[in-house]
Amino acid sequence: MFSRILIANRGEIAVRVIRACREMGIESVAVYSDADARALHTTLADRRVRIGPAVATESYLSIDAIVGAARSSGAQAIHPGYGFLAENPHFPAACDAAGITFIGPPGDVMTRMGSKIAARRLAQNAGVPIVPGEVPADQSDDAIAAAVARIGFPALVKPSAGGGGIGMKAIRDPASTAAAIAQARREAIAAFGDGTLYVERLIDRPRHVEFQVLADHHGNVIHLFERECSIQRRHQKIIEETPAVVLSPAVRARMGEAAVALARAAGYRNAGTVEFLLEGSGDAARFYFLEMNTRLQVEHPVTELVTGIDIVCAQIAIAAGEPLAWRQDALSQRGHAIEARVYAEDPERDDLPQAGPLLLYRQPSMPGVRVDSGVVEGDEVSVHYDPLLAKLIAWGETREAARRRALAALRDYPILGIRTNIPLLIELLEHPRMIAGAIDTGFLEAAGAAIRARLGRETPAAVDAVARAARSAGPSRPAAGRGARSLAPAAVAIDPWTSLRGARV
Amino acid sequence: MAPVSDVTPLGSGRYLVEQNGQTTIAYAVASERGTWVFLDGRTYIVGAEAALRPGASAADEPDALAAPMPATVVRIDVTVGQRVTRGSLLVMLEAMKMELPIRAPRDGQVAAIHCRVGEIVQPGVPLLELPSRAESDQT
Q1: Phi/psi at A56 (nearest 5 deg)?
Q2: Quick one: angle between helices A399-410 and A422-430, nearest 10?
Q3: Is A63 within 8 Å of chain B by CB?
Q4: Spans in chain A with pLDDT lower than 70
Q5: Chain A partners of B123 at a C-beta cutoff of 8 Å?
Q6: How far is CA B40 from CA A324, A359, A367, in A?
Q7: Pair A377, A314: CB distance under 8 Å
Q8: d(CA A387, CA B99)
Q9: Is the pLDDT of residue B17 over 80?
Q10: Taking Cα atoms as reference points, which of A499, A495, A498, A485 lies closest to residue A379?
Q11: Continuous segment of H or E residues that includes residue B112
Q12: Average pLDDT of the residues in B86-104
């Protein structure tokens, strides 16, 4: 087993991995950019190394800086988290070259699964159903438009190199084709530095169901059942759960077998996720392989809560060469888990990302509720990185019990100083279609306007009374010479309670 | 009208609210940007920043359009003097990996452009000017 691991990430996932290391008696090394010099993950690790300026390309995306930090700190292994370098095949290669173990799949497997064409071919050969689509060899706008017409409407164009829904555009009629291609191309280049586009049939009203797999270095591959991630906004997941409501035991078993077969065919190692689109429900449901994510997923905790397996600890054990500790037939799903992603964004304003100080931040604590967070009170949420603040995961004996717990916890999760999507999460969890489990990936788009209209409800009288009481207690911090309208990160450290100490409370 | 609530500070930003025999915990912090209040899963800003919220007052919007947050200018779709209609795309910003379109809040004519492609703009700093004019009253 390793004695020291570097975590090449930030935010909640860095914190998550650091905690796993501590449990396992492994020293952790955090890395940070100048924007994160005081960030939670750097304060929890055993060591910390500055890797560059705020701009991600020169810090969290710099292979040289991170491998250099691993060398200088004496780390034997690197955990990439998700995002940033987690799916960059050059990263495991650079780790190998430096004699450092990469906690994840080999670079060549990553390359194969990262290419949608190669992954689809592999799936086909492994007998796993796929959605009709292609990466046109001619990548001109006209050729992409011709491919869209060939595949038929509705179609989807997306970056071949992509993930996370970035640059993905639905095309429903010929008139909107050109604009969609241009926008997908721009976002593809901006996000991945590669404008290659992929065109496929859009399966209308599908459910997004993915299977967690674990593969060791001894030929063992298992799956940890499914996660349903159908509540998405612009193809970004916001609520995930397991088990999937519509999955019959027979279809679950077939999908699990398909996921394992694909991982085996790919020569996969470590934790990965096989994503499927699911059409229909019950035993008649059909599934199509979408893509394989060669990393830990944001939503891994729901699987942990129903299977009892710590996926991050499993990743570290697998990378250290240990055989899987579980046989497939010994695994089962117990109860139900729901994850709600808490984002620094304003649901009343087009989900505009928010930056600013966390003047007050109090996580709920109650039975069956877990919060994986990357921030603490007093932190400054910056504009440099992803707006995910934390994930709230609720477990219950039944889906309804988990849903109620998630709601109770979100209502007891005050975050002040920036807007968050918590009001939207509450509305979603209270929605009749969510209660009934009648959710597909188009749900938020279809029901979004009505849900968001409810967010603008009038201010209760009690709010003004509380505000008056808070004002008489005094401002949380002295004016720092910044404009009242500025949302820019404050240059000063924030300690909202310093000035409250004199107040009679 | 609802009866006046009884509010008792509990310390560390916590407040006990008693109203009609019901008790609730609220959280609040006063800041230079207004007073933030959390009550039953919702966040409210009382004072200063309320004016920044959408739909607060479409009528008295300033002539200048500003970035809502620090962002990079990706594209400028208009030129000075160009007539635009409400909702048309003026400037595309990018922040936190997301495209952030700045659209015309009303019909009008672009009077000035204050940003360049590639520039990192700060919130509140004008990107361009689209004067609100009397003639827009018709809409």
Answers
A1: -60, -35
A2: 150
A3: no
A4: 163-164, 474-505
A5: 485-488
A6: 44, 18, 19
A7: no
A8: 14
A9: yes
A10: A495
A11: strand B112-113
A12: 82
Which tokens hold the place of A487?
């949302």
Measured from the Cβ of residue A191, the count of other Cβ atoms closer than 10 Å reads 18
ipTM, 2 dp: 0.81
Contacts of A344 (CB under 8 A, 6+ apart): A353, A354, A355, A381, A387, A388, A389, A418, A419, A420
Structure tokens at A30: 């955090």
Please give the model's pTM, rounded to 2 decimal places. Answer: 0.79
The A residues from 398 to 457 touching B (CB cutoff 8 Å) are: 410-411, 413-417, 419-420, 422-423, 426, 456
Question: SS3 of A418, please?
Answer: coil
- The residue behind tokens 């005094």 is A474
pLDDT of residue A236: 82
Hey, what are A58's tokens? 């020169």
Q: Are the C-beta atoms of residues A418 and B123 closer than 8 Å to each other?
A: no
Mean pLDDT along residues B15-35: 93
- Tokens 């018709």 map to which residue? B138
Residues in chain A closer than 8 A to B55 (CB atoms) = 456
- Alpha-carbon torsion A478, A483, A489, A491, what sign? negative
Question: How far B120 CA sits from the closest chain A CA (Å)?
Answer: 12
Give 3-state DSSP helix, strand, coil % of chain A, rounded to 5: 35, 25, 40
> How far is it, in rounded angstroms, from Cα B118 to Cα B110?
20
- Outline where DSSP puts E strands in A280-335: 286-293
Classified as helix, coil or strand, A146 is helix
Contacts of A414 (CB under 8 A, 6+ apart): A360, A361, A362, B13, B27, B38, B43
Chain B residues touching residue A426 (CB < 8 angstroms): 41
Cα–Cα distances in angstroms (integers) from residue A163 to residues A47, A116, A175, B125, in the given order: 31, 10, 26, 33
Report which DSSP code applies to A372: E
The CB-side HSE value for A14 (13 A sphere, CA atoms) comes to 29
